[in-house]
Fold these 3 entries.
Entry 1:
Amino acid sequence: MLKVNLDGVVREAQPDELLIDLINRAGGSVPHVCYHPQLGPVQTCDTCMVEENGRLIRACATKAADGMTIYTKSAKASAAQVEAFDRILSNHLLYCTVCDNNNGNCTVHNTTKLLAIEHQRIPFRSKPYEVDNTNPFYRYDPDQCILCGRCVEACQNVEVNETLSINWEDTNPRVLWDGGSTIGESSCVSCGHCVTVCPCNALMEKSMLGHAGFLTSLKKSALSGMIEVVKGVEPETGYGSILQVSEAEEAMREHRIRKTKTVCTYCGVGCSFDVWTKDRHILKIAPEHGPANGISTCVKGKFGWGHINSQDRLTTPLIREEDKFRQASWEEAIGLVARRLSEIKNKDGADSLAFISSSKCTNEESYLMQKLARAVIGTNNVDNCSRYCQAPATVGLFRTVGYGGDSGSISDMEKADLVIIIGSNTAESHPVIATRVKSSHKLDGQKLIVSDLRENEMARRADLFLHPKPGTDLVWLSAISRYLLDNGLAHTKFLDQWVNGLEQYRKSLEPFTLEAAERLTGLSERTIRTVAHMIAEAKATCILWAMGVTQQSQGSDTSTAISNLLLITGNYMRPGTGAYPLRGHNNVQGASDHGSMPNMLTGYQSVDDPEVRQQFETKWKVTLPSTTGLDNHQMVEAIHAGKLKAMYVIGEEMSIVDSNANYVEAAFEKLDFFVVQDIFFSHTCRYADVVLPGAPSLEKEGTFTSTERRIQRLYEVLEPLDGCRPDWKIVQDVANQMGAGWRYQHPSEIMDEIAALTPMFAGVNYERLAGYKSLQWPVAADGTDQPLHYTKRFAFPDGKARLFPVSWIGPTDQPNAEFDLHLNNGRLLEHFHEGNLTYRTEGIREKTPDVFVEVSPELAEERGIQSGTWVQLISRYGKVRVRALVTDRVHGKELYMPMNSVESPVNRLTSSHTDHVTDTPAYKEASVHMKVLAEVGDSPLPRINPRFGHPTPQGGVEVERKWKRADYAPPGNGNGNGLVQLQTKK
Ligand code: SF4
Ligand code: SF4
Ligand code: SF4
Ligand code: FES
């Protein structure tokens, strides 16, 4: 601890603590407009001047030093603060009463008040630029922009999209998109970081404009009139009384604007934020305190909420009559579901029914779904969509380290010296995790290796991009392991102390010579050696992987090979190391954790363990089935085989997101009874007998578990739309109609039951998760959690990890003369999966309206294709018609088709081949024939899509350029004498 004298009081400071943080911690009141703790010092506003030893220093950019004496309110410091803020006001009109940002958190407003500014000494000067309204979600008003550069810092160094800059050398500096484009045509991905951190109303969410204030919905002419009135009275009354009026208006807003914490409904990163609502209107998403994301979001979490108030929401149960659906009451629908499930159970046995829980639903809902299957029906036929993506990664980790979750946290990915990303389009599928890696790579010298078929954004940023032949990751990973062991580069001490099975593993690596690896993967021996040395030399390595690895017929084995490699290099048990299978859906981790699996009860307790079963039987007062049930792939097979008669699916677009969609649909047509619970009439609903309207995440309480095993609470932002019910209530209604007698009044009671039955969640309860608090499992009874896993032992009885030998078999569905092109597929940044939610946000639809197939420039030339050419893709299993997009993201004869389509889903083309351990479909092993059609349309991606933009990477705000301006002098004494400009970066 350091000692700093702050205005006459000695305070203790942490080493490296910035003065501004110390002052704030001590309850001081130094203005600071450009400083934001999550951005670090940007040093543009000069309002934080304090006096030290007779000289002025910026509190935001100066680290506390032992023995310092700081005056925050000396005449010199105060004068400098006011002078600096005066300059800011020359860039900004204070019309707070008619401003949608007048909500108590406007930094400019609050600083005016803090400094008791009465009059503007430097007159306001309008900037010669128009307001830019060209982005569907936010607008920029140059006249209100105080040039603090927070937005630039956020875009350049937190989001690292590198779109924003400030033209400091211009007569009238402003924020620029791509160096001078409109926002709409720039590379801006609408992540919203800039809008979130803007300290005033220069950047604002369009959903706020005209909605937040009482007077702000007035016509523009009337608003301008009122602004003129404010300007007119200011010389006489001063700002004090103007601010009083605006604060009265602000206080009135507090009564009608609700701010409710939720967790993002889209991907597995687990971003959390406040949702600001006025009645059912979503004013904005305000990220700040989320333990996984802080100020970060992507376009989906920040702006993708159009589905909530969509006209298409299901608001009444539907019952099939012949080929049509009719509306029904809840009573009738639940009665029918319960009656038919009972009849089929009585006639064909409990195992003729199957249940699919939703990875979009809460942990509590997943728990109730498996409880319905097991305790009420009596079958283990229950699964969730982790089967489609993450089950192989879970197996790989179970085999080697004992638990199937990420071994550390997102902060470990930030800390690593080397990050290796395999088969993951992280910047689009897990955007906020990508920001952390991009930032560490850009600012902190982290090294990045990417292995992928496509040159995605992370690949383009990587120090080394590997493009192995499809489906061969296991080979180069194993070859590296062998090379490291053969050349004395493995971490022997770690192996001796913590790992079993080395000899058997070493033997299994015999086939993986560098020569064999070069032949099978197409990567040169030199490249493989380079990767090996980079790992050996890095102090801490993380490996991130996703569906490019898992959705292969050897997904489990490749995931195992990744973990093996981490073990032999000692990359577990330390900060900045570990295995990170990136979970796709918001709660795909939680759905499995909470027992929606055919072989596991909650917390991965096996259904065939009599002791485990007995505990559940005692609590649930039933007898439980002991044999492993059907997974969702086997369910489809069992329908075709006539063994499975009824299904109940919640929130899962199974008919088109399962592979070989035609085959799945044909199965659904054979079901005797099919219940689908969803918020929209999905494609899968077409095959249903009863459709039940559930509620989206904003309309319920519960918890989600993100990719880093982080359990977080979501609160009810809006009441369920009339006619809809939270899914946990619907499942309870069905169970009770069948005689279960459940009495849950609130999801917290369900969580208490889970905790009592599950050692892994023993200490989880809603109190420990209140607000933004979170827990990363396993959670001991006293509430201790594990952000970094395996710090003391691995999760095997002897505490040691296990090397698990794997061999290479090779992919299925290979290209041949007839199906000559390899078809890869995956997500897009803007859409989640098939797009049932995201297409309902107009701005997303505008920017990314349709699906497409990416074709390499060389293949396009060979086949006479341009962007917009219609092609038919034909596989061994089906066909789709789609427009081509010519791009160098793909190479040679490799195509890529995103999943964002219900009409032309890529799964009409994929096969029923699966990972040989988990039954996860081998989605990534598809080959097709491409028939070029005569028709040429517009490019499937419009010009306003950010992929056509031209980012302008720079170090950040680059405030030094401002300081070099002839008209700049540091505040305080007019000539800069005595101002000490200290370090600029973190
Ligand atoms: S990408 Fe766009 S929305 Fe995101 S920070 Fe940059 S300019 Fe703002
Ligand atoms: S637009 Fe950017 S530079 Fe302007 S006030 Fe907002 S954050 Fe600061
Ligand atoms: S989709 Fe993922 S990255 Fe984007 S805001 Fe939601 S949780 Fe965060
Ligand atoms: S807070 Fe802006 S320069 Fe310190």
Entry 2:
Amino acid sequence: MMNLTLKIWRQKNASDKGKMVDYPLSGISPDMSFLEMLDVLNQELIGKGEEPVAFDHDCREGICGTCSLYINGRAHGPATKITACQLHMRSFKDGDTIYIEPWRAEAFPVVKDLIVDRSSFDRIQQAGGFISVNTSGNTQDANAIPIEKENADKAFDAATCIGCGACVASCKNSSAMLFVSAKVSQFALLPQGQVEATDRVLNMVKQMDEEGFGNCTNTGACEVECPKGISLENIARMNREYLSASLKG
Ligand code: SF4
Ligand code: FES
């Protein structure tokens, strides 16, 4: 069993200044997940009549992208290619001090404690992250359209982005380029995505800029911290898509 000191960001609401608060926690099993460890803390806090720590989670299996925790200065913690909910306490040692903070980015304002508002990502998606489907009765079976294996694989890899925002949180410029480029690439590589290709990239980039995300300076921290291993190659593809769409427009 492990004894830990947690230093957790507490912030009552969006306008509260917020501060780090120390919580000693004992009896933690190395087999617990990181979120189960926070559940134990919250159970203790509730038992003492104190306000539990607010944190986001849903699937707890690396799919939904909501568990946006900055742990010991890294998005999703010390392990690579996993989300905070997939992190286990065996990644830490007995006696460790663990710093837990929310994502920090102007476009992700803190709602409460460790929860941030990532609706800026939703608005970027709504600006172009979709395809039109012909529902006239002539709809072609998707499997009848030949697609090169290499493109199908790359499109699938891009589609694994879970919209967690770790790329933004780990970027010194709070750039959302990796996220947006994954969403653009997912369609740019497939015939189904060609109908709206020009509008898609222009509108999604415009929305990204309006939301207050910073510029990309090719630092590459996003790729390192992305739990799904989304490649920087997608950013290069989006830049090409953007240039050719601008020339058409
Ligand atoms: S690109 Fe990676 S880090 Fe960024 S939102 Fe998608 S899955 Fe998360
Ligand atoms: S809770 Fe869904 S990805 Fe972590």
Entry 3:
Amino acid sequence: MQALSSQTFERIAALMYGAIGLSFNESKKPLISSRLAPRIQRLGLGGFEDYAALLESPDDGGEFQVAVDLLPTNETYFFREPAHFELIEQTLGRERPRRLSVWSAAASFGDEAYSTAMLLSDLAQQGRIGEDWSILGTDISDRVLRSASTAIYPEDRLRAVTPERLRRHCLRGEGESAGLVQIQPRLRERVRFGQLNLCADLDAPLPGAPFDIVFLRNVLIYFDPPTKRAVVDRVLTQLRPEGLFFIGTAEGRVPCDTPLKSLAPGAFRKVAPGP
Ligand SMILES: C[S@@+](CC[C@H](N)C(=O)[O-])C[C@H]1O[C@@H](n2cnc3c(N)ncnc32)[C@H](O)[C@@H]1O
């Protein structure tokens, strides 16, 4: 297959930017090329130009969603950035809410949502929060959401989960499923997943909104500055005043118009409007 030309790379990058806000600069050309080449071969297309034309055509047969499933980075794991979970535990231990609603806004395979479910389940069992808690996980990718709904993971992704939590909240696979774990049904029933594009309108309240806690971690890095700001302000409309907001610790300062109080790296509280 012919190498991905700069011109075709720009066509594909412009499509992704327009639809889901992902900003790929020229340095990402090898990544785009390596992720799309096997797909182009499987479809029996002539090359990247044909594939760009297919993505641009109104009758793409669902191929745009396939590209959206292939191009963004979905890396995630349980209890990533543990300081955030410690902060949630301390805050909730102090505030002792009777009900709690959480949104994992770029949920990927669901690791963040189920990590939170383990924490909330433990806090509820200790009587430090009420029993009425739920979690919504959303992502742009169908593929990761389908996987998240099965709640099946390679053991390695739960490397930061304590043995005691693993015992309490996970079922270990045997035989052909050795090396895999599945989250217990009583946690799974508290977590719902749905498709949501952070770059599209978010005017109506999501199920569970206004949320007490919103995670928007490790997705802003893929957006350019104007998109980042718009996404953060849009997402924050779904968080209640005084609610907790998390971005990835490597994502720097959070650029937005909504007033936030900084609590720790990547951790904020939404400031309540004055009297
Ligand atoms: C690196 S993962 C982050 C997962 C998790 N939040 C964490 O910190 O481990 C980024 C996720 O953002 C999703 N994503 C990228 N653009 C998006 C958009 N416009 N709307 C919703 N999700 C998006 C990707 O599909 C991917 O699953």
